[in-house]
Structure formats: structure tokens, C-alpha cells
Amino acid sequence: MCYNKGTEINVEKGVDNMKVIIAKNYEGMSEVAAKIIADKVNSKPNCILGLATGSTPVGMYKKLVEYNKNNEVDFSLVNSFNLDEYKGLSGDHNQSYRYFMDNNLFNHININKANTFIPNGKAENIEEECRSYDSKLAEYGGIDIQVLGIGNNGHIGFNEPSDTLSVCTHVTELTKTTIEANSRFFSSIEEVPTEAITMGLGGIMRAKTILLLASGSQKAEIISKLVTGKINTKIPASLLQIHSNVIVVVDEEAGALIMSNDNKLAVSIVKN
Ligand code: PGA
Predict the structure, then answer these.
(1) Is the CB of residue 49 less than 8 Å from the CB of residue 75?
(2) Crossing angle for the helix pair 58-69 and 26-43, nearest 10 degrees?
């Protein structure tokens, strides 16, 4: 599948495997991302997709539904692993990430639901749930392409800024900023779960390709830190700088600071 790549920035400064694509707007970001996923599925029909929730990938999922309906991509052999799930919410709760994935993607494409994995937020033994999620991931051979959003605080999945980060799937307390950011989906902030199960940095970093998406001006600062800042556990996404194959797709607003002429970032912009 070919597509208009938009403006592409090749990042220098030792981060030689991070490619940044700046699309015009949210629609363009969604299209570029969906085509990257569709290309992966077409070249490896039984691939393992790592999937994410949040507002950012919704447009990408819409495009994938469209491509599937037009027979441009076939998900029948695909397996998927999601990044995270709220602790305490069952899959039929309308704010659970299982519910989100079913409604935004799985119910509308020809994927076998039995091959879609999301941590069980209501598991009786939550530690066991985390261990078995990692074992299953290992058994399937790891993720071919991992979709990520990014929190304004730099979290990926629910790996929140901290002095230490976890390798394995684990239960984590959500930070105040994450609870505030996610309260827009709930009727009140008190209803937002305070804990979640999240894949750790190990599961994410072992993915063969990382596809990180961001849109809107509120993400410009964190995208700049992701691409050019120092690696720091207080910005979990910055660890992606040491991954060997990262594609960052942003719209112009989220890419504003890395495109600015004034900033001292060592990036070279290549117009396609
Ligand atoms: P968003 O969330 O896509 O809703 O901005 C991203 C994230 O928190 O990872």
C-alpha cells in the first residue's frame, strides 16, 4: 500500500532509528498510521499487533475498519495484545479497554476475537494475571508492531513517570495527571480507577517496530522531549530512543516544537 508520507524528519543525534513523520492533521496522522499497520498485516498475515486505547488511535482504527470492509486488509489470522486495562473494570464496563477495543475495532473487522488479548482487570489473582499475560506474549513470539499513544506526562501504556520502571506486566497506580486526563471519559473524576494493569517496558521494547502517535498542540512539548530529550525514567517514552525501530507519526500541532527553526534540536527536516 502506498501513501503520501507527508513531511518526514530523520532524527540525528545518535537516535538513528527513530523516524518522525509529520502529517498535516489528525486525519493525515490516522491514515499514515493505518497504512503502516495494514502493510504489516498484508506482508505478515499472522502478525502480532500490539494495540493501544485512548483518543489518539481512534481515527487509525476507523481507517483500518474501512480497509477491511474494502478487502484491502485481512485480519483473520492476526493476533493482538493490548497494552493495558483498568484494574477493577470488567470487559463489559463501557470505560474498560476491552469495551473500547471491541467497539472501535474488533467488532467491525474480521479478526477472531479469541485471538485478541487484553489483561483482565477483574482477575481474582492479579499478580497471576500479569505473569500469564507475559507468558502468553512470549509464547506468541512477541509483538511485531506496537501502537503507542503518549501521555502528556510521557507515559506509555500506563508506565507512569517514576524513579524506576518495570520490565514485566504489572499493576500500577495511576498518577494524578493521568486520572485527571482520563476523567473526561467518566461522569466524575471519582469514578476513574486509580490502578491499572499495564504491559511493562520489556514487553514494549521487545516489539520489533514501535508506532507512536500523537496529535494536538498539548502533545507538542512531550513529543519534543521524546525525540530530543535525555533518556529519563521520569519520561518513560524517552526510553524509546534506544529502540532500534521507532516510527513517530504526529500531526503538525504535535510536531510544532520539533519543526521550529529556533529550537536547538539536532534534527534535519527532509521534505518528501
Ligand atoms: P490519548 O491518551 O490518546 O487519549 O491522548 C494517550 C495516552 O495516555 O497514552
Answers:
(1) no
(2) 50
C-alpha pair distances (Å), 26 with each of 73, 75, 109, 151, 213: 22, 24, 22, 17, 10
In the residue annotation, 115 being an active-site residue is answered as: no
Strands of 48-51's sheet in order across:
116-117, 79-82, 48-51, 145-148, 209-214, 246-251, 18-23, 7-11, 267-271
* pLDDT tens track for 201-233: 999 999 999 999 999 999 999 999 998 888 999
Residue-wise pLDDT tens digits, 158-181: 999 999 999 999 999 999 999 999
The residue whose CB lies within 8 Å of the most ligand 1 atoms, and thus the one to mutate among 146, 150, 153, 174, is 150
- What type of residue is 37? I
